[in-house]
Design goal:
Elements: H1 4-20, H2 25-32, H3 36-48, E1 52-53, E2 61-62, H4 64-86, H5 94-101, H6 107-122, H7 124-138
Antiparallel strand pairs: 1-2
Helix pairs in contact: 1-2, 1-4, 2-3, 4-5, 4-6
């Protein structure tokens, strides 16, 4: 299993490839706010684990295994954003909270959360009742 840090890199590479069609060390470094040398070190580790295909000073690609892990993390991230949005979570640190949670949710939990989000989207009266209930608890 990759570490949380490895998953962050895989997710960022996946998103860059989806957006631009490729991922370069400079793009990953900028997106994760790390040094390019840190990206190079991580690419070597990910390459050794068979998660990326990496050649120094070139673009890199995800292996099928790496892509699967990266897509899973990206899907969890998206699902959690949906949950936080529909529940109107009033946090200033939503991105950091999602980043912390996404690595610790299994497939079954992700499915349950995803189905809850879909249910609340399809039943706005229930969602609004919950929001009202939550607001009453705060008072």
């Amino acid at each position: 299993m990759p570490t949380t840090s490895m998953e962050d890199y895989l997710e960022k590479i996946y998103l860059l490839i989806e957006e631009k069609g490729y991922a370069r060390a400079a793009d990953v470094a900028f997106s994760l706010d790390v040094r390019p040398s840190s990206v190079s070190k991580m690419m070597k580790k990910l390459d050794e684990k068979g998660l990326v295909s990496y050649e120094k000073y070139r673009r890199f690609t995800l292996t099928p295994k790496g892509r699967s892990i990266a897509k899973d993390i990206a899907d969890k991230h998206h699902m959690l954003e949906g949950l936080f949005h529909i529940l109107e979570v009033p946090s200033m640190n939503i991105y950091q909270e999602i980043e912390g949670i996404e690595h610790h949710i299994g497939k079954e939990t992700a499915f349950c959360i995803s189905s809850l989000v879909q249910f609340l989207e399809e039943n706005p009266d229930i969602k609004n009742s919950y929001i009202k209930y939550r607001e009453e608890l705060i008072q």
